[in-house]
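MODEL INPUT / OUTPUT PAIR
PAIR INDEX: 1
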Amino acid sequence: MSKAPFDPATQAAVVVFIGLAFLVGRTLPWSAPGEEPAAAARATAVEAKAPPQTPAAPQQAKTSQSPPAAPIAQPAAFTPQPETSIPDDDFGKAIRFGESIFQDTKTNAPGYVGNDLRCANCHLDRGRLPNSAPLWAAYVLYPAYRSKNEHVNTFAERLQGCFRFSMNGKAPPLGDPVLVALESYAYFLARGAPTGVKLAGQGYPALKKPESFDFGRGAEVYAQKCAICHGPEGQGQKSASATVFPPLWGPASYNWGAGMAVISNAAAFIKSNMPLGQGGSLSDQEAWDVAAFLDGHERPQDPRFAQTVEATRAKFHDTPMSAYGTTVNGVLLGASSPPSGPAPSR
């Protein structure tokens, strides 16, 4: 009997069946006869170890340093805790003491201050104002490595450095009521903020470096925009009982080791916050020039003084952002600096 030819529908079905069989055979795990149990076990083990699949991240160059804190993409503005939410208990007393130190440092921490400045001179609105190195934005970034002292700092150690350099004083020991109160105040302001990330308004917004900055141009800006509050000789202004506007150079100001003695830091602060109540009114160039003018004056010695001005500059100030150890208007800055630290008790 002759075989009946396949009809077209049957032929199509056979082709589809063979194609599907081939595809399944290509996609299923293959193992030699007798190896199915072992292969299955290996597949199970690999699946157990495999992490959940996530979208591929861009490749980053390897570095010997620890990775920086992960940034928040376009972080929302953080609002520090209002004073009305300070608790009415012993912790609340520590917070209020910290705030009083911040506002009137010399009066409330006299043994640790050697000039006429207060914390709130550089951290405006009691440490609350964004873009004025607010206290709440700094608190959430510690512990952190600092190149200034080449090790990981706690927040308490960071505060100690402020007393030593910016306040031209000495560091309160760990556990001292002054230090604990300031930590408590910072913790209170930052309550509710994410930790380990840079918040919007942190620090002073960095300025693009200009082609140059100039002491002479800075002197003109200072006379026009700054002297009315800080005095023609940078001495500040006082009332009968307190400093109203801080001195910007001279024996009652911050010393050569302070962050504000770095021209780029001073320029960033000035641009965002000065003249007081008119932040942003100066051009970037004016901010750079007046910062260079301020840095071109004597101030208390760097407490890390390394026996000579030349050695101290080489170790701590070897940068165009510091005038320490350079000659300005015929004066070698640092050579006649007043001593650092609080004046000896009489």
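PAIR INDEX: 2
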Amino acid sequence: MALFGKKAKGKVTKLFFVTDVHGSETTFRKFVNAGAFYGVDVLVLGGDIAGKMVVPILDLGGGRYRATIQSITHELASHEEVAEFEKRAAKLGTYTIVVTPEEYQAMAADPAKVDAAYRRLATERLERWLAFAEERLAGSGIRCYITGGNDDAPDILEPLVRHEGPMVVDCEGKRIEIDDDGHLMLSTGMSNPTPWDTPRELPDEELGRHLEEIVAGVTDFTRVIFNFHAPPKDSTLDTAAELDWSTDPPKVVTSGGTPVMYGAGSAAVRAAIEKYQPLLSLHGHIHESRGQTTIGRTVAVNPGSEYGEGLLRGAIVTLEGDVVRNVQLTSG
């Protein structure tokens, strides 16, 4: 889609926006490499960095190992096969840990041990990602802005908060000029409530107050970018299947054999967009609701996510002064 607005003022800035990589090594590396591939000026990763689970690899002794992922059990007969399994799991966004049967039983009996392993592995992967991005972007002139999402616990995000490299910037809760043409990005990875009780979600009314704190002091929104992980409610960027939570696992609610869909986004985010009318609004969270729309003058985008396939969904946005010149949804 091209030519939003009537006139342009200033130079062209191209940004590449991606969200919801959920621990996928393949997807994150593609994201960083996409800066040069697409010839953009700015990279933005809009949240949900961490993976969702840890898969144990049982050390059975004698060079034999066993692991189950996606309901398929794998018998591994060498360190090389273990390494290959770990690589495939990392592509899916899954963490792995080699344990003896005794260690596995101890973890199974103590959820705190599992949680500790998950947080350690997620933190270590994020640290490696930051180092990779710094190395790959060095000398390119491409800055990479990252915020966590609702799924990312604060302690897992600590490596990002502490990070002081020149090319990768933690933008959570901050107002940052992303170029020398006055484009100001305001970011938060917090979301409205979800059925999964994730680490960084707020009641919508409280989220609204949080957004007001972020925008406080900004008086001109003509070149402002909202980088808010949660999409605006009932915007077509937040359409998800309704789930019946009386079953385990929850099942999709259907009517006449067709899934019942609803807007799972945030009313507070929508209200902020309607009130302040930023130039651009970047969102994620609802993986299957890929697309773009307008709310008043604001161009709003959700690039979607298929991280589990190692597929990078993204959006190249071309800004020219106070105009969004083009939005190109990408996949690769």
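PAIR 2 NOTE: The chain has one domain: 12-53+116-331.
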